[in-house]
Amino acid sequence: MPRPMHANNEKSKDFVGSIKRLLANLKPWKILMGLAITLAFLSAILSLTAPNKLSSLTDVITNGIKPNTEVLQDVVKEISKNFNSEAMSEKTRIILTSEDISIEDKTTFQNFLNKMQEGTNGSKITTGEITTNDNDSADNKEMMKSILNLPSSVLSILIDDISVNGTKISSEDEIAFLRSVIDIDASKVNDDTLKVMDNLPESIYNLIKPTMDLDAAKRIIITLVCLYLLSAIFGYIQSYSMTTVSNGFAKDLRTRISVKINKLPLKFFDSHEIGDILSRVTNDVDTIAQNLNQSLATLISSVTLFIGSIIMMFTTNWVMAITAILSTLFGFTFMISILKKSQKYFIARQEELGNINGHIEEIYSGHNVVLCYNAKGEVTKTFDELNGRLRECNKKSQFLSGLMQPMMGFIGNFGYVMVCIIGALLTMKGYITFGVIVAFMIYVRLFTNPLSQIAQAMTSLQTTAAASERVFEFLDEKEMTDESNKTKVLDKTKVKGDIEFKNVKFGYDDSRLIIKDFSASAHPGEKVAIVGPTGAGKTTMVNLLMKFYEINSGDILIDGVSTKDLPRENIHDLFVMVLQDTWLFDGTIRDNIKFNQENITDEEIWAACKTVGVDHFIKTLPGGLDCVIGENDSISGGQKQLLTIARGMIENAPFLILDEATSNVDTRTEELVQKAMDKLMEGRTSFIIAHRLSTIKNANLILVMNDGNIIEQGTHEELMKKNGFYADLYNSQFKK
Questions:
Q1: CA dihedral 484, 488, 493, 497 (to 10 degrees)
Q2: How far is it, in rounded angstroms, from Cα 344 to Cα 385?
Q3: Where is average pLDDT lowest: 61-75, 127-141, 566-580?
Q4: What pLDDT score was predicted for residue 8?
Q5: CA distance from start to end of the chain
Q6: Sign of CA dihedral 8, 10, 15, 21
Q7: In the CATH scheme, what is the homologous superfamily, with its name and number, of domain 581-652?
Q8: 272 pLDDT above the threshold of 80
Q9: Across the chain, what does the average pLDDT equal?
Q10: Residue 122, class by beta-carbon neighbours within 10 Å (0-12 exposed, 13-18 middle, 19+ buried)?
């Protein structure tokens, strides 16, 4: 039955610590990362520059489509200069003494002067605007109407030609202008002015007609295009750089994990689920790569935009800046509180993901066993428990992080509304232009969007921190002892074949010994069988001999040389192993037989196959030696075992280990495998672990183990005569 799995109870590192370690491991890519971060920063700066340019362009367009009504005041002022005291005195003298003006016109003018001087409040026509809001406004308007009703001969002298902004305005145009605007209501001056624009004299109309500065607009547009184009180019290079960094880092992590696996002792794999290890190699590394690519540059850009937009807003208008910031400030505070609460759930999610992957890998590897024992219900129950825990972690982490996006959206929209309201009020007061409102609408987006992006980036970094912590935790596992200083090496072509166990003691921990006091000797060419009940320590002894584990005390000697003085690779090179579980990888039969052996010819392969009796079978396969095993389901367990024996034949090693090599085959196939193994054992010192005692009757030495000790040893005949533990084991296999 599959064993239930539990979450790793080791205390997780803090978020900051995990990120620091991640960045420390990214040092080989610091140049590319620096480039990506610099480009992200520059792209953000360009984005911050654009709103001011858009503001200027908006003002140019706005000014280009509305009439320049302000110039009318200049026109009025210039006209009013005709009626100041000094000018009026001189012109009155000219009019009254002129021979070209009729007596009737002079009389009319004299009556006007008398009426003006008889004003009850001493009103006079002075320089200034036509209409005002003071008490003299009505009197001034009436006097101007009286002036305009004077004879043309008089008006031609009273009103001189004027020049406004370099444009000459004739007296006739002045008179026409005054007659068109004399009745304008002061409270509606702008509206009324627009109504009479079409009736204005051409000289004055040309002054106020809408004119757009096309050159200025062109310069701003070119600048904006350059800004956006550079931002796009920087963004592409930045994205390419981060993609290179993330993929390279992921490749490096997988390489380090691959190297690490080969350096870990077997006891690590005894205490860790294969599925969890695979999850760290695949899911966790992929998570790091994807999130690193998306979040780091985004975070830099977002922070730059966030801080830069604040600076630019205050530089533009502090009232609008305070409005935008206050409307979004509480959203940022809310985001920070969510980040603190969600981190633990992201870490738990990665752990539970590893657990469920381990469970799935275990169940599907033993699917036939599950079906055979009708354990679907219990297996499903365990899966549901693991899946439920993963769902809860996902739900809590995603719910908290999911609150950020809608909250930031609401805050952003609220900021738009407030900017528009306050901006409209300030524009009406004349404090800002319409272009400033446009700029601030962009600044609000540049201020609020980074908050959302920072939230997303922090969420990704949380997942990345949890995943990297699991990967680095694996990379920090204690490795097998370094043997680079061991220079003593045994040449397998010169090894005699002596092996001696001297008082060997071993346990996975010091508190519980599995091998308590093991001593035995094997001489060149001997067949040494190790038998005993399950858990007696048979396979453990073989693992100690192969130096898969380090012994606690005692010693193991090969040709008188301690295995402690030999590197593991040298010891492994001295042994051929045939296990009960045949291991063949997805590849051709040729590649499987000559696995990790160089300069092996097809003739040598065929000779080995013929020796073990599998050559005829290979010839029946499509492609022969080129047949891909992974694509051919017609290969039985016995045939696979014969192929592994043929692999051992190819390797010219002085020692042989057979670990239950015939346990998974039928009786008829066992005979074929046994014959093949007999051929394999010729000339080699062999260690045979077997439950079928009939296969070891011809062994030179049989070691009977129980509870980590040798309790009996001798040949088959000697042990049967003792009628002890071995005899009981042997006889029990033949009882009906």
A1: -110
A2: 20
A3: 127-141
A4: 38
A5: 29
A6: negative
A7: P-loop containing nucleotide triphosphate hydrolases (3.40.50.300)
A8: no
A9: 78
A10: exposed
